[in-house]
Specification:
single chain, alpha/beta, Rossmann fold, 6-stranded parallel β-sheet
């Protein structure tokens, strides 16, 4: 490679809108690689999911988008060699799996090396008992990739299942957006916050049932659910559940928040709740945001959650249990008691974020590793 040649990297995937952890991180990766003077970085845009209500559902529009992505890839290749293409591997659902099977052959054809970024988890569990033809096709494609990238030690299991030999852990990192001017607690309330998709996989119905029980005994509690509903949950069904549980007026539904509005939600919260049991959960980015704002966290001990939080975080990481609502209620009750005593939790999560999860040029070593992959180094 001539000394004057900059490696050309293409990052594939969808950026917001809609808002979601994977989309946000793809956008941030693009920004970081473009700011690194060692690369030429371009984007292979995906538009498979213009609205999360269509997520993981097959459609004629998605088939057309697949064809468009292939033509975009060809256009990128015609402008010059692609030294590395970072590709977002699909999750455990059938639609993204079929997408990968149809699209990856083209990616492998036109890029010198391919890195698989496993944003979603659970694909090993999907094929553990019955692989069939889909597993055979996917394995043959995944094993031709240079490297697999995961965010936590737990998520090694997905690429390892397919026999990918080179697996690297690169945790997501976030720029520090904490603003002390937005920290505005209401001493008359104890506000619980959830941010993310609203659906059974993310624990929304179980959280509502748990909250209804503890809120009946504590009139100061308020629950704020930030995000949008995913099927099978809808706005109408969510409001019906809230009404039937008798917690209208105690649950706030501001919808999707971004920028300053989302920061204000973190600033007014007293505690963050993350009850996810999603089979595709890999790296709960919102937990890192909660740590950024110094919030104690109550989260399920599920997949990579404990790896993200670490062993010394402030909060409770609890097993989902056979009755998730009861498990959440018990953990919340214990956490609220500790928070009110103010003798155990003293804001350590903020420092943990600064030490482990803050994005800086020094902590973001993805570009350096990408150079190693391009050069064929371990």
């Amino acid at each position: 490679m001539p000394a004057t040649h900059k490696p050309r990297i293409v990052i594939a995937g969808q950026v917001p809108p809609p808002q979601g952890g994977q989309n946000v991180m793809i956008a941030r990766m693009l920004d970081a690689f473009r700011a690194d003077g060692r690369f030429e970085c371009e984007h292979l845009a995906f538009h498979f999911t213009p609205d999360f209500k269509d997520v993981r559902r097959g459609s004629v529009q998605k088939l057309f988008e697949l064809v468009k992505v292939i033509f975009r890839l060809i256009a990128l290749r015609l402008r010059g060699p692609i030294d590395l293409l970072i590709y977002p591997a699909g999750g455990p659902q059938t639609v993204p799996i079929v997408r990968d099977i149809l699209l990856l052959p083209w990616v492998l054809l036109f890029a010198r090396r391919v890195a698989l970024q496993f944003h979603a988890a659970g694909i090993a569990d999907r094929f553990a008992k019955n692989g069939g033809v889909l597993r055979a096709f996917l394995s043959s494609l995944y094993r031709r990739c240079e490297v697999a990238v995961v965010m936590t030690e737990f998520n090694r299991r997905d690429p390892a299942f397919f026999g990918i030999r080179k697996i690297e852990i690169i945790p997501h990192r976030l720029p520090d957006e904490f603003d002390p001017a937005l920290v505005r607690k209401n001493p008359a309330q104890l506000r619980l916050l959830y941010v993310g998709h609203l659906c059974p996989d993310k624990g929304t119905p179980a959280l509502l049932r748990a909250f209804s029980g503890i809120a009946a005994r504590d009139p100061s509690l308020v629950l704020e659910l930030v995000g949008e509903c995913l099927p099978p949950l809808s706005d109408e069904l969510l409001r019906t559940q809230i009404r039937e549980l008798g917690i209208e007026g105690r649950v706030e539904l501001p919808g999707v928040l971004t920028g300053r509005a989302k920061s204000e939600a973190f600033g007014r919260a007293d505690m963050f709740v993350f009850p996810s049991v999603a089979p595709y959960e890999s790296f709960g980015l919102v937990m890192v945001e909660a740590m950024m704002w110094g919030l104690p966290i109550v989260a399920t001990d599920w997949r990579g959650n404990r790896d993200v939080l670490g062993g010394d975080f402030e909060g409770i990481c609890h097993a989902p249990g056979e009755d998730p609502a009861a498990s959440i209620a018990a953990a919340l009750a214990d956490a609220i008691e500790i928070l009110r005593r103010r003798t155990v939790w003293l804001g350590r999560n903020r420092q943990l974020f600064l030490d482990r999860h803050r994005f800086t040029a020094e902590t973001f070593d993805y570009p350096q590793r990408a150079l190693h992959w391009i050069e064929g180094r371990a």
